[in-house]
Design goal:
35 strands; about 675 residues; single chain
């Protein structure tokens, strides 16, 4: 489904000839064709820029690059519409394709909103998408930019050219959600939805207003713990996919036609509450939504992986020198789809948010569902589903979990994700192992959930935007309730934080019967929001593998396969697909990382159930070099969103996982 979007392009040209130490930077607009009005909003590039030259360009240090003030480019955008709009500013290829990599270009950006809100961002390398700023802009507001670029001192390019256009995209912004959360980004097969309750135990999902302007079809409101939900559907079911995509707001989306359900996790920073390997009692995690891809947290971390190490990362506070609990802030690392550089910047895609599967994954494979065992389920080629009241896909190894989820965006997927007809995922053995998709033509990524992504959702749930902030629940009932379904079906609840599979009663996710006395909903109490709009199965259900792995026992560059199958110590997933940790022979909590909901949420370091809410808290062990989260249906109080333990990666009848969807960049003009 295409978003209504404004696109403006002005040209930005940097030509680099290392041998001659000569380059120039030029931007311009052509006439008045620098804006496109859509509906009642439009964002304009209001500054014509011509013949700006960067002289004597060559690889240089940051200090030298900043000193080249003659290379500074100033431009501005303005919202001339009547409502708030979202925007993105990028440097993109125009008619000519650059031969100099974006990663070889360093830049610093200063942004001034109005006349006095000025902010200079940290120096960084231009990311692969070319995105330099995004966020929301109020009506009749001007944002002015100063941009200075230079060639990275470490660049080895020679005779390369870097020709770019300034691209300004304007998109309709919500006026129903006042939380400051980034607007959800949809792929063109995703449908925004809201729940229409008909009784305490029945209701239907309907198509929401994708602009979130009409309260009748309201899509999201994070202040009210109403997280944005979206679905994908079959090509042909009770209705066709095209029917749903083109239907008006309020149209029922038949559950039988749904293939996956997703929940939007907006980019945020949080206040560090236990950053120095100490203990901490349960408390509210103070979350503040970030603007676009801003990284305003004071804490910067990068990996420091060791053999028999007592930590896995080094973190510093750029404002307070050292991390200060209840003062230092950290832009959650899950919103970097990649790894961290030594300066703490993202070596990968900065995300405005990501989509988390609403339930544990299941499959439509009839043989696996009828006789669930390793023979029938531990294989590739499975269609992954994300729906309630389905048997979790168990009896499958980590490597096959990973492979099947990557296949969700292959060219023959059942969900409608766009991909080139030549895209090949699994014909080549190495592609199957690394997650690389040959001829990948889209701007999004389906992958097995990482530990950091789990942590990001757990923390948001423990904030005012999650179940902790839901006034329907009080005291101990603010903990996410356990899925106690003894058949390990998705989206169930025991109606309490301490129920288990021996309890005869289990309630489906949409049971909105209020128990009273601060206990809240029987079914929806098991979601991360305490209502139907959150994420389920993060407490109980099946154990969930996350992509978290320790370094090789004898070689830090190696991968610890354990019993995960398929992978080897030298052929394994790309680094953006998993979180790495230092190797230890025993459980050492301190090797956890900030943001992953391990070492920060422990209140008893000497107990294996020392986590918040008495959840299990056990890091990797020798020969169990993978992490599992959430506990399972019989764990009672030991299960929970901050439960973490270890496993060897082999197929087992109690273990599953879930997918995550990231959208790296919107480039709608490619499909016009």
């Amino acid at each position: 489904m295409k978003k209504k979007m404004l696109v403006i392009i002005a040209s930005l040209v940097l030509m680099l000839y290392i041998g001659y130490s000569l380059a120039y930077l030029r931007t311009n607009t052509e006439g008045s064709n620098n804006n496109l009005t859509i509906a009642d909003f439009h964002v304009d590039l209001i500054t014509d820029i011509t013949n700006i030259t960067m002289n004597n360009t060559y690889p240089m240090s940051d200090a030298e690059g900043l000193d080249k003030t003659e290379n500074k480019v100033t431009f501005a955008i303005k919202n001339n519409g009547d409502i708030v709009a979202n925007y993105k500013v990028s440097l993109v290829d125009d008619t000519n394709v650059s031969t100099l990599k974006n990663s070889d270009v360093r830049y610093q950006l200063t942004r001034t909103i109005g006349s006095n809100q000025s902010e200079t961002f940290e120096i960084t390398n231009l990311e692969s998408t070319g995105l330099i700023d995004s966020g929301s802009i109020d009506k009749d507001t001007t944002i002015t930019y100063e941009l200075i670029c230079w060639v990275d001192y470490n660049s080895t390019a020679n005779g390369a050219t870097f020709k770019k256009a300034i691209l300004v995209e304007g998109m309709q912004s919500s006026n129903l959600d006042k939380s400051g959360a980034n607007f959800p980004e949809l792929t063109d097969n995703m449908i925004p939805v809201y729940y229409d309750k008909t009784s305490d135990t029945t209701g239907v999902w309907r198509k929401a207003d994708s602009k979130n302007l009409n309260s009748t079809y309201k899509w999201f409101d994070y202040d009210e713990q109403m997280w944005a939900n979206a679905v994908t559907v079959k090509e042909t079911g009770t209705n066709t996919r095209d029917y749903y995509l083109n239907a008006s707001s309020g149209t029922e989306i038949n559950m039988a036609d749904i293939t996956t359900m997703w929940v939007w996790i907006p980019r945020y920073k949080y206040v560090i509450f236990n950053g120095n390997n100490e203990t901490a009692e349960e408390q509210e995690i103070k979350v503040m939504f970030e603007h676009g891809i801003d990284t305003t947290g004071t804490v910067k971390c990068h990996d420091d992986i060791l053999l028999l190490g007592t930590h896995s990362e080094i973190c510093t506070d750029t404002t307070n020198s050292t991390i200060v609990n209840h003062k230092s802030t950290y832009t959650h690392p899950a919103f970097c789809f990649g790894t961290k550089n030594l300066d703490g910047s993202c070596d990968g895609e900065e995300l405005t948010g990501f989509w988390m599967a609403k339930f544990e994954m299941s499959t439509d494979d009839q043989t696996c569902n009828e006789t669930p065992n390793a023979t029938n389920c531990n294989k590739t080629g499975l269609n992954i589903l994300v729906k309630p009241d389905q048997s979790s896909l168990n009896n499958i190894s980590v490597s096959n979990m990973f492979a099947n989820i990557r296949r969700m965006e292959s060219n023959d997927n059942i969900h409608g994700f766009n991909q080139s007809t030549s895209a090949v995922t699994y014909l080549d053995a190495n592609s199957n192992l690394t997650g690389e998709i040959a001829f990948d033509s889209n701007n999004f990524d389906t992958h097995m959930i990482k530990n950091m992504e789990w942590g990001a959702v757990a923390y948001l749930s423990q904030s005012k935007y999650g179940k902790l902030g839901n006034t329907l629940y009080t005291g101990e009932y603010k903990e996410v309730y356990i899925n106690n379904n003894s058949d390990y079906k998705t989206g169930y609840s025991g109606g309490s934080y301490d129920s288990n599979s021996s309890t005869t009663t289990t309630y489906l996710y949409n049971n909105l019967t209020d128990q009273g006395n601060g206990q809240g909903y029987l079914g929806a109490g098991a979601s991360t929001t305490g209502n139907i709009y959150g994420i389920y199965d993060m407490s109980g259900g099946s154990f969930e593998y996350v992509m978290a792995n320790v370094a090789g026992r004898t070689n830090l560059l190696e991968f610890s396969v354990s019993s995960a199958e398929t992978w080897t110590t030298s052929v394994f997933p790309l680094s953006k697909y998993y979180d790495r940790y230092s190797f230890q022979n025993s459980s050492v909590i301190s090797i956890g990382k900030l943001g992953d909901a391990t070492r920060e949420i422990v209140k008893n370091l000497s107990s294996v159930v020392g986590g918040w809410y008495n959840d299990t808290s056990s890091m990797f062990l020798s020969n169990t070099e993978w992490m599992i989260r959430g506990g399972y249906a019989s764990n009672k109080t030991m299960a929970g969103t901050v439960n973490f333990s270890n496993r060897n990666g082999a197929s087992r009848d109690l273990d599953t996982t879930r997918p995550v969807l990231t959208i790296n960049r919107e480039m709608p003009w490619l499909n016009e």
